[in-house]
Request: fold
Amino acid sequence: MKTPFKNIQYHLRMNRRVVLAVVITSGLVSILSLVMVFQMHRDVLDHAFVVNGEGEVIPLIWAEQQEHREVEALAHLEQFHQWFYAVDAGSYLRNTEKALWLGNASVAEVYQQKKADGFYNRLLQYSLVQKVVRVDAKLDMVQGGFQFRCHTIIEVHRGAVTDTYELLTSGKLMEVERQFPNNPHGLLITDFFENTLRKMENHETKEE
Reply:
């Protein structure tokens, strides 16, 4: 037979067990938090820091990652200009398709404009061979990527005749997900624009 006294004892025991469980759980959480804070502090002390050109202190690992990203950005631009501008009658379709993977609609618009202007028809008609001699790119870091300006030297071979052109292009590089093998650098050319294209004189090509 249950009595009020036994019922009170039962509730007191239950309350004591609940309190004990809460105290043990809180202790474990506190210990785990202290361990994590100690680990984070040790990781921070283990990493060196550098000062950038603006006087900001940044982790060395982050700085190295940015340097590697700049190398990838330059390689991305080099590859794009080689595929987009180094073309001949037998390779322009294949190369252009590869180049379009490296840019967004702004690159496709330039391609469509070239197509409408009859550039590729002339390429086929006169058996032109267009080679990219050099690509010099300058990068400016912006949020989420880079701004770029490229100075490209192009040779157009028409039989025994060779003409040299200077092409200036600009745009932005936006970080995207890497896609192998189509876009291994994980960068996308946006706001692409052909600023100027001019034929170089003989004395300029000799200086180059």
